[in-house]
Structures are given as C-alpha cells and as structure tokens.
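In full, the data:

***
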Amino acid sequence: MGILSWIVFGALAGLAAKFLMPGDDPGGFVVTIVLGIVGAVIGGFIGQTLGIGDVTGFDLTSFGLAVLGTLVLLVGYRMVKR
C-alpha cells in the first residue's frame, strides 16, 4: 500500500476504534489517523503472531486487524493515563 492508502486506511481504522471505544482521548483528526496507522501495524503484528493474517490491503481481515490493533493501543494509552 502507498502512503495515501495508509493515511486513508488509518483514518478509517482510527474512526472505527474511537466509535467502538468512546472516551476522552486527546487529539483531532490527525491524531486519529496516526492512531489508526500505528494500530494497523500493531494489528498486523498480532495477526501474524496468531496466524490469522496481516494488514496488506483494503480487505475485511486487514481492516479488522487494524481496528483490533487500534483498540489495543487505546486501552494501553488509557491504562498509562490513569
């Protein structure tokens, strides 16, 4: 995937994760995109470790793993924030 694809994919994954786990998180749209991109990397690592797959393109498995990784990142952030 190209850089523009990662930005769009990160935005969608970040928005979906923030929708599934609402709360008082900092940042606006740019932070949501970065959160989604980093979450996609984490989700890809989790998927490869568990043998599910990885984040390689715009498909349902990649999107699910990206959202999962973003949720893990949000939970970790909220635990550190406390």
